[in-house]
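#struct-help
A.M.: can someone run this one for me? Single chain, 295 residues.
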Amino acid sequence: MNVGCDDMHTLSPRDGPLLTPHSTLWLPDDPSGTFARSSLWAVHIFRLLEPHETRALVALALEHAAANGWSTRRHKHHPTTDIAVERETAPALHSAVKPLVARVVLPTLALHYGFELCELQMRDLFVVRYQQGAQDRLTPHRDGNLLSFSILLSDPSEFEGGGLRFHSLGPACDACGGLRAAAATCRRCDGVGRLALPGCGCGDLTTHSGKLLHEGARVTSGTRFVLVGFVHVTSPEIDHEFISHGSLANSSAVGAWADHECVGGARLSPPSSPQREMHTAFDDETALAAHLFGG
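D.P.: on it. Structure tokens below:
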């Protein structure tokens, strides 16, 4: 099946929609009172793609995989079974996805997390496959970047289990009640005590700080495809040393108790305004897209 970028959005940055979430979950208040709540504490879920658009992207990914295979070694500490969405190695996927990310996803991230669009830049973009009998999950981790997003490309009827699961927010496991002693041996939540984010449908966009401890929950049947993006933030309001090299903020061994410090410590100061001008630094669409994708 040949699918081109005509099947995807063709919105310009200036008239592209800044999405409104249909669901938002917040990191609970810091019990120590050290860190005040900020926009980085929020996990948002948005309606984004229609079913025919997700099918088009999955078809492109499968075409690429049939010719080139799936990668399993791109990420050192928490590798995924994936396809890098790069111009040189996956041109058809890149052409289909880049306009969507540059014109809709990144402006939406900038708006809801209090940054300017020119302060965001893609660091990695890839299609992940979770499959029973192969790689069915991703172990708990913190991303190396401040912001992350994922777009579910599979219909929930095509798989069981799976989903994005956070260790400090989201619903308690309905099997063990989220109690530590019971959760340790619970197969439903794999010992986390929480379930994956509810209400995420096919084509939905989920955004969050990569510094929140999270994982890909186990797929128990079927196949689940997800488009994942890692976003670097260059804002002077951010502690870049802490984000990139802080041992706490980059440790998967440190539990959910550290989420307040990992997220709260990333921001040096609150944003000057909850909504900021998105395009002041780039009047030319080509220059803006080149900046957002690092080239």
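A.M.: thanks! The longest strand covers residues 219-233.
D.P.: also worth noting: DSSP finds six helices and eleven strands in the chain.
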